[in-house]
Amino acid sequence: MDTEKPLSQLSFTVTCHISKPIEQVYEAVADPKQLSSNFTTGGAKGRVETGKEVSWDFHDFPGAFPVRVIEADKPHRIELSWDGNRVIAENGFNQVVFDFESVDAGTRTKVSITESAWKPTGPGATAAFGNCEGWTGMLAAMKAWLEYGINLRNGFYK
Fold first, then answer.
1. How far is Cα 129 from Cα 64, in angstroms, rounded to an integer?
2. Strands 108-118 and 65-73: what pairing?
3. Greatest Cα-to-Cα distance within the chain, rounded to the nearest angstrom
4. Residues 28, 35: contact at Cβ < 8 Å?
5. Tens digits of per-residue pLDDT, 77-123?
6. How many distinct structural domains can be found in the chain?
7. Does a structural domain hold residue 157?
8. Do 141 and 153 touch, CB atoms closer than 8 A?
9. What was the pLDDT predicted at 7?
C-alpha cells in the first residue's frame, strides 16, 4: 500500500559553510551595500529589518524586485517573502528563510537558505529549480566575496 501523501508544495534548501564569523556573514545579506557587492548585481536598496520592504535588482532578471522582510533576527535568521507567479499562497508570495549557524568555535558560519510555497506543477517546478540555482549561486558568490574578496557575479550575466 502506498502511504505517501500527495505533494502540496515544492520547497528546497541549499547550504554552505563560510569561513567567517556569523555576524559578518549575516551582514553580507542584511546590509544593502554588501549585498550589492556580492549578489544583487543591479543593486540592493534598504537594510533588511523586520517589517521593512527592500528592493533587489539583478542584471540577469532586470527590474527591481520588492522583497518583504518578515523577520530579521540578527545574526541568526532572516525570513523574506516576494512575488512568485507559480506559488500556492493566495497572496502570490513565496517564503525564503536564511538560517545562520555559528560553527567551529565561531570561526565559520553554516548558511542554509530554504525557499517554499511553489506549486507542485511543471511550471512550479521550473520556477523552483531556477530559484534553487539562483540561491546556490548566491551562496557561492557570498563565500568567494567574504573569504577572498572576489565578486563572482561581476560580468557573469552581462
1. 21
2. unpaired
3. 54
4. yes
5. 999 998 877 888 878 889 999 999 999 999 999 999 999 999 999 99
6. 1
7. no
8. yes
9. 85
